[in-house]
Amino acid sequence: MSLKETDTEQIILLAAKEVFFKKGYDGARMQEIADEAGMNKALLHYYFRSKDKLFEAIFNDAFQKFIPRMVEKMASDASFEEKIISFVDNYITVIMEVPQIPNFILTEINRNPERIVEIMKKIGMQPEIIISGIQKDIEEGKIIAVNPKHLLINIIALCVFPFVAKPLLQNMLFDNNSGDYHTFLLERKKEVSQFIINSIKIN
Amino acid sequence: MSLKETDTEQIILLAAKEVFFKKGYDGARMQEIADEAGMNKALLHYYFRSKDKLFEAIFNDAFQKFIPRMVEKMASDASFEEKIISFVDNYITVIMEVPQIPNFILTEINRNPERIVEIMKKIGMQPEIIISGIQKDIEEGKIIAVNPKHLLINIIALCVFPFVAKPLLQNMLFDNNSGDYHTFLLERKKEVSQFIINSIKIN
DNA sequence: GTCTATATTGTGATAGAC
DNA sequence: GTCTATCACAATATAGAC
Lengths: 203, 203
Known about the structure:
2 copies of one chain form a homodimer. Chain A folds into 2 domains: 3-62, Orthogonal Bundle (Arc Repressor Mutant, subunit A), CATH 1.10.10.60; 68-200, Tetracycline Repressor, domain 2. Chain A is mostly helical and 203 residues long. Chain A starts with a helix and ends with a helix. The first copy, chain A, has 12 helices and no strands. At the A-B interface, helix 1, helix 7, helix 8, helix 10 and helix 11 of A face helix 1, helix 7, helix 8, helix 10 and helix 11 of B. Chain A binds a DNA duplex (18 and 18 nucleotides) through residues 4-5, 8, 29-31, 39-43, 45-47, 49-51.
């Protein structure tokens, strides 16, 4: 494949990402993507055939980024504290690089829940490994007895929610000063892991 | 106003809610709302003039339900434990009555963040009252020293996130068995308040 | 108030020149 | 590979009969 061909394709993907992230599938317009990419609508179809195919490329890539790399972190031999600190810090850092992803993914998944079944198979994220990892830590007396599924959801919720609800929380707590909210999100790396550790540590 | 007029209006609102909740503003079609309501498109415009106006009616109502009634609960003289238990139980119960609301509100707010400023004024939810309430509990030594804003977000995140991410979590943890997930959400009333209390209690 | 018919504009997609 | 022109259909909104 020539360099030029790959180039155009990447420009389209970048533009499409921009528009789909902001407007969602239904709100996005091929015309707007073309404008954003500085080219013609027809060219989008030449490279991706349809709006659907173009969207799918964006969605699959974003979904990969959204799914936390939990297995490596949580299934190690480190102490639970270390595992939590490392996971939370890493996950929030990753999301902050493309903070629109959580809202985009959750919106699109709710719009079309059937999509999940097929996606999950491709990814193979195996939550059972994390669940049983937590179970093991409980049995070894490292943390108090909790329902692992609830704990897992709690961890993810604490990391992700501030990004999904950003416009609301930003206005509610900081009068829309985006710099403040950014600082707030950085603080959360420590706050969240501390919050979790406190709630499950053995006294 | 005659009974018949109010009747039709209510039927439209009910149908619109159904469709807007599922598809969002951009995905919703006036035709589908009309079908759902068992009447003609023209009638929707007769009662609400435009898709925008109809949407606004739905959105404002849903937003009211989404904003937790925190002030009453959190500003009382009860112990912090009691306040948390009461708030979490109540909020999750309210959301479970119309579980599509969190995703609907967060999607639409991200799609059009400008909307918030104006809405927030109307509501007057005064988060400062809750923040300073938490501050007071800290000063009185009822709970450990934490950043009140982070604690507030944590509480809301733990309650709301499982609804926003339902399709994902349901598939991830329960192989799409919706009965299991419903039970899981009911369990959270206790799990979440316990989780919060553990993390901030003084040893 | 409620319906049918229609105006009008928007939007994904393709044909065909260069 | 990239562009212009255009098709075909979808969607909001209105006109006007009943």
